[in-house]
């Protein structure tokens, strides 16, 4: 009985869709639906028609993530900096060992939710494992850069509603989403400040994917291919919000983005930290995860 009522309702919706389309568009629409049904002949519920009839259309991203349209493929990114779920052994890990115990715990997952302390004292390697455990991954630097666009990147006069880059929230690090204005154009919070965020990849002896990176300094140019600084200067550049590039051009260096609660004007959407080893942990470094966007219908 339940399936019949649901099917009847969805069928009426399907008829309304056809009625609202012109005759030419109806032919195109029905042709698309027909071809898709053939592709899913073994499971009609997964075809376009099946999802309309059975009410199974999917959102592109889970509720705790936001959609980021991208030329290379849309993706979802956590709306907030990751925190440890309530059933994790350690809500606020104090070092790599406690983060390891969280990751090894069967039911402990990284969560994206407001008004929670970010999961810090976790290495880049561990952050990648935590994301993978949730069916996600660390964002690339290019993905992170795109998601961060539009986040207010002020140089001074930071208030409680702004991104936390000058101890301007009640706590350091602060609860996720505390800065109501610290939100990007896609709706992701705290990409600037509060804590640095690990991203995927590493710098090897000053090279990123074989390309030499500039010396430490204020960002004055950005590569369109990978989002990394292409040039730096000794003095702040207003074109890049006085954001700073930290780097040690020796050995393997993990990559973090955005700045933390006390970087002031040097934090921002163009701020990079390639100064620590992938095993480094600290109170000022956290992470968030990404995943491929669903296709909807």
TrEMBL record:
Q: Which residues form the Sulfatase-modifying factor enzyme-like domain?
A: 72-291
What Gene3D superfamilies does the entry give?
paralog of FGE (formylglycine-generating enzyme)
Q: State the Pfam families in the record.
A: FGE-sulfatase (PF03781)
Q: Which InterPro entries match?
A: CTDL_fold, Sulfatase_Mod_Factor_Kinase, SUMF_dom, SUMF_sf
Q: Which GO terms describe its molecular function?
A: formylglycine-generating oxidase activity
Recorded protein name is Sulfatase-modifying factor enzyme-like domain-containing protein
Source organism of this protein record? Candidatus Falkowbacteria bacterium CG23_combo_of_CG06-09_8_20_14_all_49_15
């Amino acid at each position: 009985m339940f399936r019949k009522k649901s099917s009847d309702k969805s069928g009426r919706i399907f008829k309304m869709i056809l009625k609202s389309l012109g005759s030419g568009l109806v032919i195109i629409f029905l042709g698309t639906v027909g071809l898709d049904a053939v592709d899913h002949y073994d499971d009609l519920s997964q075809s376009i028609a099946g999802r309309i009839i059975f009410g199974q259309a999917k959102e592109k991203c889970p509720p705790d993530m936001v959609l980021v349209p991208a030329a290379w493929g849309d993706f979802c990114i956590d709306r907030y900096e990751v925190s440890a779920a309530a059933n994790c052994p350690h809500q606020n890990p104090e070092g790599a060992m406690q983060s390891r115990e969280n990751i090894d715990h069967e039911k402990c997952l990284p969560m994206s939710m407001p008004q929670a302390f970010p999961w810090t004292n976790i290495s880049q390697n561990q952050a990648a494992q935590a994301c993978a455990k949730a069916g996600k991954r660390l964002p690339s630097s290019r993905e992170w850069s795109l998601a961060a666009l539009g986040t207010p990147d002020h140089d001074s006069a930071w208030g409680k509603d702004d991104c936390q880059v000058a101890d301007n929230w009640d706590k350091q690090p602060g609860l996720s989403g505390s800065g109501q204005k610290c939100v990007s154009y896609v709706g992701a919070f705290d990409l600037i400040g509060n804590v640095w965020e690990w991203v995927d990849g590493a710098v090897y002896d000053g090279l990123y994917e074989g390309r030499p990176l500039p010396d430490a300094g204020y960002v004055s140019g950005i590569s369109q291919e990978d989002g990394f600084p292409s040039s730096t200067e000794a003095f702040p550049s207003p074109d890049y919000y006085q954001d700073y590039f930290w780097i040690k051009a020796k050995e393997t260096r993990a990559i973090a983005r955005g700045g933390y609660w006390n970087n002031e004007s040097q934090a921002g959407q163009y701020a990079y930290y390639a100064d620590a080893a992938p095993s480094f942990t600290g109170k000022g470094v956290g992470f968030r995860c990404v995943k491929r966007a669903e296709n909807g219908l």
